[in-house]
Design brief:
This protein is about 35% helix and about 20% strand. The protein contains twelve helices and 15 strands. By secondary structure, the protein is of the alpha/beta class.
Length: about 425
Amino acid sequence: MANIVAIVGRPNVGKSTFFNRLVEKRTAIMDNESGVTRDRKYGYAQWTGKHFTTIDTGGYVSGSDDVFEGAIRNQVKMALGEASCIIFMVDAKDGLTNLDNEFAKIVRQVGKPVFVAVNKADTTEMSYMAGEFYALGFDEVYAISSANGSGTGELLDAVVRTFETDEAINKDEGIPRIAILGRPNAGKSSFVNALVGTERAIVTDTAGTTRDAINTHYKLYGKDFILTDTAGIRKKSKVKDDLEFYSVLRSLQALQDSDVCIILIDAQRGLEAQDINIIALADKYGKGVLIMVNKWDLIEKETNTAVRLKEQMYQKLGPLSYAPIVFTSVLKKQRIFKAIEQAVQIYENRTQKIPTSKLNDAMLPEIERYPPPALKGKYIKIKYVTQLPTQSVSFAFFCNLPQYIKAPYQRFLENKLRTHFSLGGVPVRIYFRKK
């Protein structure tokens, strides 16, 4: 059995702070407002040479006014089911509460090793308060501080002693990452849930339901990859509170960490300025791009509706129109697997290495037929082309006068590269070097 440690407890006891300490990244959003974490988040951690997966969960509550309350409880129960051991976090400052007692009953039913972590025990006086939590009925109680790390070593020593095997180092390395991005309420979480077949992320009609970037392992057509569901990205001027600001930062981080970005667009709203901004950002970072038009089932269609809409979108996109467009309905599961298939193809296009001989065989005759225009009576001669060993797809054209080549000719070369090679959905960088 895999080593999986779930961090659970009521809201605002410091679960995400502890999770971030374990994974050594600021992955989960932390705020004094309760209910910041909603979906369960996964990270890789290691302690004294033992590797394990850790799950951060939303705060467990009942009887509140929060519309997400039931969904968060389900996510917590799923995490308890997946875990091999449980860190039940409580708050030394608040002392033992009714909600802690109520939640302890649920944790007890799971029948797995439980460690009570009494958080916010930053002072000696506070660590003495940990004793009252033995009343919950668990043997292992540890006074800790997620913020400064005191007491976490003893807790983790006890946790890793429960592991039966040593898990491999970060299994995510080298697996293609596909980020699902877009404006709020375009259907990103519904798309992930439809693909995975479980309630991996909480879905409601409320914009801003997803706050953190959530990674999900997925396998299709014999290929492994990681899907990252992200918070909706709105215009900077529309972002009012700190929480949404940090959510958007996480989404932008997910974009930077990904290989391919699926940009989800609401068919009823069409391609808007903010969608183009997100696509331009993916292009800037050299990521593969697929445009997925969702809620296509809600559009009244004639014979050429899709063709006409595609043309309009490409006109708006201009130089970004290398991205394929697929029309889908997540609700009806129309073409959602085709979208993933295309995203995987874009990943392959982005990671291919084209041999120099093939590049020259295709490109030199094109250059001979249409050479760069002469400037100030000087003739530009391109000798050869090669692909550069960079993360984004880049080519270097070696010539006698690189400084005289202008943007229109650069676009011509890019179009010819796309004609001869599989570069759909991939931004192409062209450099001119002196030979």
